[in-house]
Amino acid sequence: MSTSINGTENNSVSESTLSSSSSPSSVPPESKSRSKSKSKMTLDRASPIAHTRGYQQEMLEESLRNNIIIAMDTGSGKTHIAVLRLKIEAEREMRKISWFLAPTVALCEQQHEVIDASLPVSVGLITGSLEPDQWKDDALWRRTLEKRRVVVSTPQVLLDALHHGYIVLGRDIGLLIFDEAHHATDKHPYNCIMQDFYLELPPRMRRIVRPMIMGLTASPIFGGNVDKAFEMIEKNLDSIIRAPRLHREELSQFVHKPVFKHVMYNSPDSNPQFSTNLASLQYAVGELNIEDDPYVHSLQRQLAKATPESREWKRVDQRLSKTIQKEDTFTHKGLKDFLRTGEAILQDVGAWAADWYVWKVLNKARMALDPLQSEMMPSWRDREKEYLRGIVNNIHVLEPSYQEDDIIDDVSDKVVALIECLLTEKEESESRNDRYSGLVFVERRDVVLALTEVLRNHPVTKDAFQVDLLVGTSESSRRHSFLDITRHIVKQSQDKTLMDFRIGEKNLIVSTAVAEEGIDVQACGCVIRWDPPSNMASWAQSRGRARQRHSTFTLMFEQGSASRRDVEKWENLEREMVARYNDPLRDMLLAKDDDGLGEEDGNKLEFRVESTGALLTLQSAIPHLNHFCAVMPSRDHVDFRPIYELDPPDYPIGWHSIAHRSTALVNPYQGPWRATVTLPRSLPDQVRVFTTREPQATKRAAYQFVAFETYLALYRNGLLSDHLLPLTDHEMEQADEEIEKMVGLANVSGQMDPWTPEFQRESESPSASASEEDWFYAELTIGDLPPLHLITRNRQNVWTEEDGPILYLPTGENMQVTLRPLGSIDQLADPAWFIESAREYTFMLFSSINGSRMELDRRDFPYLFHPADGSRDDTWVECLESLQEESEYPIDGYNMNALDFGMRYEFPDDISMVREGGRFGKPYQFVEWQWEELDEDEMETLVERYGEVLVEYPLLKVRSFHPRTNFLIVLLSQDETRYAFILPSVIRAMSMALTTQSLRKNLFGEVSPLCVIPDDLLTVAITAPVSQERQNYQRLETLGDTVLKFVVVTQLLAEYPTWPEGYLTKRKDQAVSNSRLARENFDRRIFQWIIRDRMLGKKWKPQYEGARFQPETSTTGGPEFVDAEQASTKAQKKKKKKSKNSEQMSKKVLADVIESLIGAAYLTGGLDLGCECVKFFGLGLRNWLPLSQRVESLIQAVREPDELPPQVLYVERILDYTFTRKLLLVEALTHPTYQQNLGTVSYERLEFLGDSILDMVCTDYLYRAEGKNYSPGHMHMRKSAMVNAHMLAFLCLRASTDVSAEMPRPDAVNGEIRLRQDNKTIYLEQCLFHSSSKVLEEQRMTLRRFEMRQEEIEYGLKEDDIFPWAALTRLQAPKFLSDMVESIIGAVFLDSEGNFDVIRRVLRELGFMEILEHIVRDNVDVMHPVSRVALWASKKGKKVTYLSQEEKGNVSCSVLLDEEPLEGATETDVKHGKRTFEEVRFAAAEKATKILGIRTNPSKTK
């Protein structure tokens, strides 16, 4: 081997530290003169000060006048100039932001760190690695523009935002900086931003104008003709290439170019090497047969099943031919790539490196193929793994020897030359007392791995150098290449490697091009290129890493190669390039050509949405279409990617089966082509299949044109937003963004006061007082008590015996309350006396029991009572009048010493109440005067209570009154005493009734169809649980929630006939969300009618006029919603200043009341009135129509099928229902994988409808279940047991019909062939239309499990009193079986024109209704066994755990109570996947419930 090292001394580079920046306040933007002084600029910050050099100041000032591309060597301080420019822009342009673009994520992160540390403004970072959701989040971009002054991003992020109209270039951005600006060519995002958006803008003369441009580069061109390259890059960036001219000498002082050297090495052919491990790999790859590949087998099976000459058949035929011809399956391509890489390493690095690489990769592959290591390469499919495992296990390799002689003998001449160069450079560096640092650039990632391993172990280098590596990284789990396994060979992160290099722990880095641009590797003393640079930019970038004084830049050349001549050419180009942009004459020439900048081809095909500026181009159409399909809801076994087909196809039909295949492609077709794209079957035909209108010269163009036309059609059919994004991504998530901020609690005004006069409520002024004549009275009758007059400020409604409240007394007595309005009191002879008398009478009644809580000098009650006959018993009147004359306090007039009272009135027996002690003592019910002496026991009791006292007769014999809450008892005169106890409950009932009347009048109005909802239902619907009334809205809310979802589903399905299920689900979820419902409540101020105050019997006191007056607050500012933490903080701050007119209410309560009102409407007028109620609230939906019209419009869209598959007849027999519109049933049976065209979409839309119908049927049945009165929790548990994937799949699996047919068979006696009856059972699940082998396999395996467990499940569902959760789970039923049932129910609903009776009949045929009835009738315990055991353990104070074990292919689970196994509560099963662990856990829990005798209380409904 011969080696030569030659070099020439040049200036080296010294990088200026850019930790801060400043702006030249002395240089205004419009300045026309150039500063010739080396002015210094600093930032007023605590960080280290970076001084601005003269050449940097020169470039900064030039950038303020013109768009420029700054061309300076790496390390000369280009980033510092950019920072200064950003600072000036942030200070002078407040309406727009500056955008800094860098081509890689690593470079973005590095530059963001520098800019953010240098500028006193907010600097944002957005890259694909941060998942900014740039496809769909308008709010993200709005916040970016509002909160940031500078944004750093990769160019694709900005390009996507511009394409979707989130950012308008001329409106939002004032400065664009392109780092590594030489990339702005061809289809690079840099160039697309300029061509598609920048050049469309007018010059900088109006508000929406082109932003200023600054480019940064060490080499403006990649090579070729300098003039043409300059013209292209300058035209693309609308800029002029500039380098310092006035301060060129200063620049040379800071830019130290390295000593250029080269190393020659012999060709590998001169000393060929042999790798044993590589030879084993070569043999294995040579034995591969593409016909054995599982992917080929899969395609062959698909072709055999497809209908000949159908579109699917042709598509699979082409795919099979292409796969066989290219041999590019996962396994074959991966192993061939592996072999080629190994061969390259053998040639480049040597036999030892090749042996190590093959051994290492195969070891990693075996680990990845281990079934227990599935997380290592999750994208590798099971069949691929199985096939690959068989091949890899037959490749016999040995670990390479680490003996020194073995390594020395088996490295290439190139490695020897590299080692000699490294040792020489290290020796020279250390001779100058410098610390050695080196960087070796290598093109191929795998060569980096192998070369690093050699240098770490070679006896000459392992102690002399601390070696590490840098390669590009990616953590994507979607990577699907065999050699992706090498990612697991790299042991240390980039950041750790760079840090070790900076602190001297490592002194030699072997790197791919990732360190050329994109990672801030500190200045090195030695840079070596293992491979020659591919272009001038790469040469300049890598050379720029050698910028220490006395640094060297070494290129390695093979003897006799042309690479050395290329470098000489690049050196000459560089000199010519520098001369060009330093030539002042260029300025004058460019000035003449300015008018031509930005002109472009007028034939560019594009579509722009005027309202947003979103742009669709040929280049963006394919990724847009791919994204549209990718965001559709995923389903098992369904590939939603668009399918592209060429016309004519690449291969002759059946090419894969031709014996001599090569002769069939002698003269391949050269174009032009048409292309067809097919979208997922969940889309209707009019937006599913498209073909290019005109043939295109290239395949790529054909694909682009058909993608463009397809995406445009999707937009015009309402499947895309005005930002040209899928609706699920943008509009639906944006529509209620403000609502979604309503987390937790809402600040609302308090509950309305029903006693406040209506005119006063409407005036919103508590000062508006009523006169004495503004009263209305009515006759109030309570059971058998004498009637009273009730006097209020508002008119009363009639209470009859049919609709008046009933008071339930503890004695078991019920008292009917009636009310007969009599009109205004102004018709009375003396209204003023009447009111005054009523006030005194009311005060007397209330104060007799509640006086301790009353204000004794107030009589201004909002409700008054008076004897209906006009007067009281004279005896009591005289008694009270005399007492009041003697009393110091008004209330004392109703209390008198018992002995004095008895002596004065001869101990009467009609006393009703006795107090103990003073006037606020506890009241007792009078029994009798006791004249008989107490016996010993009674005397002992008396002494224990009162102590030693003198007993004088008669004694008072009394009993305690009953507690009083919503029922009535007695006081004063016998009747008046009872009134005193009963009237608070009557007042409560009247208060709730008045609240209901107010809501009806003010919310619905007098002509609304909703006015027919009865008062009792309406009252329940607005009564919150916190009120502790006997009935509240919870049951109605559960029912209303189901009605709401069904109504919304039906409306959406008809309103958007082209929307796939994913769009519909998203829109439905938005419409029925608690946030939306809470907003509807708040907007209509329904919260003020929600009854949430409690009646506390022992603390009750009468209300005074104005005491609860709650004026309505203005809604101009919108509701204030806060989360729990904020609510707690605000509560503490306002604890002493709490407003009586404001309170907090949870968002759920606001939403629940809306749903309960819908439930009340449904109970009153069925689905029609329920729909009317939903329509009243709007929910952000448009075009509300009656359900019958919606169903009719859906039916009208169904056409007659051309022909019907036999499965339709079978399913009709299974359901015992004959379809009028049979295409509905075809749709219900069509799986998304089905490739044949039966004239309909797949079943998802009908499944969407059927799910809501099942909920409706089940919830309605449970709500009305006779004698149950189920609470919401119990309704939910029972509905969840009936409507879930396991249960519906079971119903699907067992549904079947027998089909008879005559088949020719031999006679048993004489062998003569005769036609005989042959019965066959057809199962519902077999009638699914699909084109997936995986679906077929799932069906077979699930049917087998069903046959094993059917008897157990049938018993559990029909006879057992515990629901068979575990057995159902063990079916492992795929979701498409339950989808089938739901879609069929949806089809029946539409075909029967919305007839729920037909639905119930079909469900009974499927067995659904029978199981539901059994659950209700026999009180089946439906709680999940795991929840049941946990609840029992919590009540018993025990700790329950589940111990799962795997052994010999079996999985077992045992229930432990307080760490001790529960005998008999263990379940074991054969492992058939991860789900087995869950199944045995459920089964063990179910056993535990039976052993412990646990079950929920089936009779408990609340």
Automatic annotation (TrEMBL):
Bias (Polar residues): 1-11
Taxonomic superkingdom: Eukaryota
Gene3D superfamilies, per the entry: Dicer dimerisation domain, P-loop containing nucleotide triphosphate hydrolases, Ribonuclease III domain
Domain Dicer dsRNA-binding fold: 621-734
Any one GO molecular-function label of the UniProt entry: ribonuclease III activity
Chain spans, region Disordered: 1-51, 1108-1141
Record domain RNase III: where: 996-1166, 1208-1393
Keywords: ATP-binding, Helicase, Hydrolase, Nucleotide-binding, Repeat, RNA-binding
SMART domains in the cross-refs: DEXDc, HELICc, RIBOc
InterPro entries according to UniProt: DEAD/DEAH_box_helicase_dom, Dicer_dimer_sf, Dicer_dimerisation, Helicase_ATP-bd, Helicase_C-like, P-loop_NTPase, RNase_III_dom, RNase_III_sf
One GO cellular component term noted in the UniProt record for this chain: nucleus
Skewed-composition ranges (Low complexity): 12-30
Keyword Hydrolase: yes
Stretches assigned to the Helicase C-terminal domain: 417-589
Keyword Repeat: yes
Pfam families found in the cross-reference section: DEAD, Dicer_dimer, Helicase_C, Ribonuclease_3
Biological-process GO terms, alphabetical: siRNA processing
All residue ranges annotated as the Helicase ATP-binding domain in the record: 59-221
Family (UniProt): Belongs to the helicase family. Dicer subfamily.
Name of protein: P-loop containing nucleoside triphosphate hydrolase protein
UniProt source species: Dendrothele bispora (strain CBS 962.96)
Phylogenetic classification of the source organism: Eukaryota, Fungi, Dikarya, Basidiomycota, Agaricomycotina
